[in-house]
């Protein structure tokens, strides 16, 4: 699989994470709409892009592999996403949000790679 396909799948996986978060937490102050979903997705997507720019593309890693590519994308998405979220909201994210963001993004970013590995055998 080429790196651009992997990047697209990672962007979709993080987009699903953001969509699930918006669905779970929709309220009058935070309605489920395209604008809200996009601004939830954007910080974590920035982490995905930075992982590709800093680690995957320069090192020419096999981007469909869980180690080290998937773990790098996941770590960058979570750390950068939560950091940007904190700056945007003027507060450190609640610990429960950090746990859910870390777990859900791991399932999606690492999960598609595990599924690809099984299917490609």
Give me the Rg, rounded: 14 Å
Ends: how far apart? 13 Å
What does the average pLDDT come to? 93
- Low-pLDDT stretches are none
> What is the ordering of alpha helices and beta strands?
HHHH
Which band does the percent of strand residues land in? under 5%
Number of helical segments with 4 or more residues: 4
The counted number of beta strands is: 0
Largest sheet: none
Output the structural class: mainly alpha
Q: What spatial form do the alpha-carbon principal axes imply? A: globular
Summed up, the domain count is 1
As a percent range, the share of helical residues equals over 70%
Architecture overview:
This protein is mainly alpha-helical and 121 residues long. The chain has one domain (3-120). The chain has 4 helices and no strands. The mean pLDDT is 93. The chain crosses the membrane at residues 36-57, 69-88, 94-116.
Features:
121 residues, mainly alpha, 4 helices, transmembrane
Briefly summarize what is shown.
The chain has 121 residues and is mostly helical.
Task: Please specify the SSE layout and strand pairing.
Layout: H1 3-24, H2 34-59, H3 66-89, H4 95-120
Helix pairs in contact: 1-2, 1-4, 2-3, 3-4
């Amino acid at each position: 699989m080429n790196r651009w396909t992997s990047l697209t799948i990672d962007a979709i996986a993080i987009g699903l994470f953001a969509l699930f978060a918006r669905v779970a937490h929709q309220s009058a102050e935070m309605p489920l709409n395209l604008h809200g979903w996009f601004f939830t997705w954007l910080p974590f997507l920035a982490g995905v892009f930075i992982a590709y720019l800093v680690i995957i593309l320069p090192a020419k890693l096999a981007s469909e592999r869980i180690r080290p590519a998937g773990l790098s994308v996941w770590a960058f998405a979570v750390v950068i996403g939560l950091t940007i979220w904190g700056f945007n909201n003027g507060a450190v994210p609640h610990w429960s949000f950090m746990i859910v963001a870390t777990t859900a993004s791991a399932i999606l970013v690492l999960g598609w790679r595990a599924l690809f590995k099984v299917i490609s055998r």
